[in-house]
Design brief:
Blueprint: E1 2-4, E2 7-9, H1 11-15, H2 20-23, E3 33-34, H3 44-86, H4 107-118, H5 121-124, H6 131-164, H7 173-198, H8 212-237, H9 240-261, H10 263-299, H11 331-334, H12 336-362, H13 366-369, H14 372-397, H15 402-424, H16 434-440, H17 446-458
Antiparallel strand pairs: 1-2, 1-3
Helix pairs in contact: 3-6, 3-8, 3-9, 3-15, 6-7, 7-8, 8-10, 8-15, 9-10, 9-17, 10-12, 10-15, 10-17, 12-14, 14-15, 16-17
């Protein structure tokens, strides 16, 4: 058999009809060395998952826990960052040091820090601020920055340990290096964002705040880092034998549909399963755009205007001032009316598309043939989508209270996680070896049944284009 640092790829997988799952796995391209024994090939589909589940899954789980744990820390930091913005704390620290620093430790140091803050534009609009009020906003910003440095250690130290112990598959290194780059870049972009507020002319704005463009870049990179962490963690939790089990179960259902429904039944069933995955991917893309539009709402403080729903104000579905800025493209990113309208439309569209994905999964026999994991993930996702819409509307109607607004931002992370889980649970369809599955379908279904099974699996050729 083939051993890979504690993972075993049995001959049943290497030469069986589902061999492609091992050889094409994105994070499990192994170092290969021969051992002295081999597995029998008598029952390739029945025995493969049981053979390897106790080895490869176990050896990769520490890596998965590490990455998912780091993702949870990033989610916490994003939430704290949202509170920092909502409490107007982001400009309280007027310098940035790579290594970080302790907060002021005595009254003299606090007075000196407060004096530095008074030299910047934000204080000119908040001259009634007391030292105690300054301490409050300073601690939020300081805590947010120190969380970033802690996450760097939480990622870097385990990485060094696993690398020295040879526990990281070679093909995983590029992705881990990308995560390193994203983490380092996030700190730089954060300071670039803060500088936009420190350097703003108080005569040009009623309220000093950071650039909405830079805020969106900062939040977008944070969500990108979070998404890559949890996706890679799920990859490691679902090694090749998981795909073997899922594909085997689907093959069985296709064969049953061919026996009972004729040539078109299997074709239709497979097409509907693929449609669920397509809709899930589209939902994830639309959710990403919605999250970025929410960043522009935050950057323009647009949630404190038009605090009615579903109309914007008492009389308008679309306010007349949506195109008042020149050039026109600026309205999408800087005009409070259009920025908020965009977010409303995108949020409701995302919730609608997630609901359509769930309904497509519930249609006909699709729900029964989907993996149990997918059914659980989709149910949780559609429920969270409804909760997120309710949180957003409540935040708007109540004039953006900090607890609700922070919960709304945290809810976007939860929704993204659940939707990613839903899509990832169907990832095995992307690499479904169509011809091999076709050959493995029962030969006893008769001429019409065999043709039906063949037609069903032909629909799987669509997968290669995903």
């Amino acid at each position: 058999m083939l051993r890979v640092r504690g993972m075993i790829a049995p001959a049943a997988i290497r030469r069986g009809p589902l061999a492609g799952f091992w050889s094409r796995s994105p994070v499990l391209q192994p170092r290969r060395r021969l051992a002295s024994t081999t597995f029998a090939d008598a029952s390739p589909l029945a025995s493969s998952s049981a053979t390897v589940s106790s080895s490869s899954s176990t050896s990769l789980r520490p890596l998965a826990y590490w990455l998912l744990g780091t993702g949870a820390l990033v989610a916490g930091m994003v939430t704290v960052g949202g509170i920092t913005r909502l409490t107007k704390s982001g400009l309280s620290m007027t310098d940035w040091r790579v290594q970080g620093s302790l907060p002021p430790l005595n009254e003299t140091e606090w007075q000196a820090e407060f004096a530095r803050y008074k030299q910047f534009p934000e204080y000119q609009q908040r001259q009634s601020m007391t030292l105690d009020e300054f301490k409050f906003i300073f601690y939020w910003e300081w805590g947010h920055r120190m969380m970033g440095r802690f996450i760097g250690l939480a990622y870097g130290l385990p990485f060094a340990y696993f690398a020295v112990r040879g526990r990281i598959p070679r093909s995983l290194y590029p992705r881990l290096a990308t995560l390193f780059a994203l983490g380092g870049g996030q700190g730089l972009i954060g300071w670039w964002m803060v500088k936009s507020g420190l350097e703003m002319d108080p005569q040009q704005r009623k309220e000093i705040r950071v650039s909405p463009y830079r805020l969106t870049a900062h939040l977008g990179m944070a969500f990108t880092t979070f998404s890559l962490l949890i996706w890679t963690g799920m990859d490691l939790f679902h090694p090749p034998e998981h795909a073997v089990r899922a594909a085997t179960a689907l093959k069985t259902q296709l064969a049953a549909a061919a026996r009972t429904g004729g040539p078109q039944a299997s074709q239709e069933l497979l097409t509907r399963v693929l449609r669920v995955r397509h809709l899930g991917i589209a939902s994830a893309g639309l959710l990403g755009v919605t999250i970025l539009s929410g960043a522009f709402v935050a950057g323009n403080d647009a949630g404190r205007a038009y605090n009615t729903f579903p109309k914007m104000g008492e009389d308008f579905w679309i306010p007349p001032e949506v195109w008042e800025m020149e050039p026109k493209w600026r309205n999408f990113f800087e005009n409070t009316a259009l920025v908020q309208l965009d977010h409303r439309v995108l949020a409701l569209s995302t919730a609608g598309l997630i609901s359509a994905t769930f309904l497509a999964a519930r249609r006909g026999q699709v729900w029964r043939v989907l993996p149990a994991e997918t059914r659980t993930a989709l149910t949780a996702t559609v429920g969270m989508a409804g909760a997120q819409v309710a949180l957003g509307i409540s935040t708007l109607l109540m004039y953006v209270p900090v607890p609700l607004a922070a919960a709304h931002q945290a809810g976007s992370l939860v929704l993204l996680s659940l939707l990613s889980w839903s899509v990832h649970s169907l990832k095995f369809l992307k690499k479904l070896p169509v011809q091999s599955v076709q050959r493995s379908l029962p030969k006893s279904v008769g001429k019409g049944g065999a043709e039906g099974a063949s037609a069903a699996v032909e629909g799987g050729k669509m997968v290669a284009q995903l």
